[in-house]
Amino acid sequence: MTDQPIIDIQNMGKRYLLGGQARLDQTIPEIISEKCRRFFSPKRTATKKKQPHTADFWALRNVNLQIQKGEVVGIIGHNGAGKSTLLKILSEITEPTEGHVALRGRVGSLLEVGTGFHPELTGRENIFLNGAILGMSKSLIKAKFDDIVEFSGVEKFLDTPVKRYSSGMTVRLAFSVAAHLDPEILIVDEVLAVGDSEFQKKCLGKMQDIANGQGRTVLFVSHNMSAISNLCSRAVLLNHGTIVGDGTPEDIIPDYLNSDSAHEHIGQRIYLSGQEPQKQGIALEAIQLVNDNQMPIGSIGLNHDFRIKITLQVEQETPAPAVAIALRDSADTLVFNSTNHDQSLPVEQTWQKGKIVFHCHIPKHLLNSQRYYVGVWVGVPCEKTFIQVDRAFYFDAIAMEGAERFIRGNKPGVVAPILNWHQTSHSESQCYAT
Q1: What mean pLDDT comes out for the span 391-407?
Q2: Which of 35, 126, 211, 297 is least surrounded by CB atoms within 10 angstroms?
């Protein structure tokens, strides 16, 4: 039937064994590694061995997912959610423990840097090797060869062994091969983070062309929510091995960003004694959203100033580091980053023991009507980090009743500043005067 999904997953699960004997669902390298570990263990004795404690770990459980031909699907979730395990099963690297997986198309996957590459072979030889692994004929690889090399940008090193490539060069060539050799299903993990920003844009553009112009299916795993939002027409959210969300990126991404509710706070985060991020005698006691009266708030009106208050506890005299905040939107796009060194004002060279409070003032008419996430960083730029909390809390920026009509609702763009405009009028004779 033509309407059958190109990927059909039914009641699929993948189980691993923690600390126990080999099972039929283990790979040969896993079995060999486990046997060697036991043999060389210092606790190994000639007496009768006790049976090690075993425990089942389900990386995936009861997964049901159907993907149609031509869909671009983003797979998102926190570390350990089961994303990589799902991709390995779809790439036929490992088999599911239970359930059924049907793939109705040729798969090209890029799960790790240099997947399928031989380090002793040159870039040229690896193109033909990887193409053959993907099921391409030699004539088809030759026809695509020039496009692959041009896209990868490694033509100067084409006859150099891949073992001498940097990780960035390797992933450029690996992605180029996978993208140009006509897989009907392209599976891409977070490996694009290895390349530079220019190449990442090329990769995203190529995946968009593959899906839109050529009607192929793309599965894309990334922690970059901006890329997921721009590239994908659908997002699937995994949590602890199960699918907890499936829909448009606009609907699913906020669920992903808000899912860590145990560690996220609305408007503030206060650390209890012994729990605060602390390094080398500097502790983060609190980071809060406050109004001009120093009162903690959970949301702000677009037409009101507000502040981000950071409270640090210094345990001993120390050279003063920089303090920075980062504001991100609901798509995880960086809105702005600001540090206490931005202004050309005197900065203390040394912090004395005691409490230090910083206020970052954010003016009205800057933000858009949406949710924002606040992160804090304390450290010496390009040298060391004392404290880093990527998403300390979130808050909502709201268009309040009575606000100026031009800022009510959501405006296009990451921010929505009200800028000063001036208009002058000149007569036609003035305009053409010489």
Answers
A1: 66
A2: 35
Q: What is the mean pLDDT of the chain?
A: 80
DSSP single-letter state for residue 122 = B
Angle (CA) 12-14-15 rounded to 5° is 140
Q: If you search the block for the tokens 């450029």, which residue do you land on?
A: 172
pLDDT one-digit tens code per residue, 383-397: 788 888 888 888 888
The CATH superfamily label for domain 7-258 reads P-loop containing nucleotide triphosphate hydrolases (3.40.50.300)
Q: What is the largest CA-CA distance in the chain?
A: 107
Q: What is the predicted pLDDT for the residue at 52?
A: 53
CATH class entry, domain 265-407: mainly beta
CA atoms in the 13 A half-sphere facing the CB of 260: 15
pLDDT at 35: 67
Contact between 87 and 111 (Cβ < 8 Å): yes
Q: Across the chain, how many H-helices and E-strands are there?
A: 9, 22
- The full DSSP string for 344-405 is SS---SEEPSEEEEEEEEE-SS-B-SSEEEEEEEEEETTTEEEEEEEEEEEEEEE--TTS-G
> What pLDDT is attached to residue 132?
84
Residue 106 CB-half CA count within 13 A: 13
Angle between helix 197-212 and 167-180 (nearest 10): 10
Name the band, by pLDDT with cuts 50, 70 and 90, for residue 408.
very low
The token pair at 123 is 């870039």
Look up residue 429 and give its amino acid: S
Three-state secondary structure call for residue 182: coil
Pick the closest to residue 74 from 336, 290, 194, 252 (CA basis).
252
Partners of 307 in the beta sheet?
290, 361
So where are the chain's domains?
7-258, 265-407
Q: What is the DSSP letter of 271?
A: P
Q: Write the pLDDT tens digit of every residue in 325-384.
A: 999 987 788 999 999 888 766 667 889 899 999 999 999 889 988 888 999 999 888 778
Q: For CA atoms 296, 301, 304, 307, give the dihedral sign.
A: positive
- The residue count of the chain comes to 434
Q: Token pair of 11, please? A: 């009641």
Greater confidence (47 vs 6) lies with 6
* Residue 169 backbone dihedrals phi, psi, to 5 degrees: -65, -40
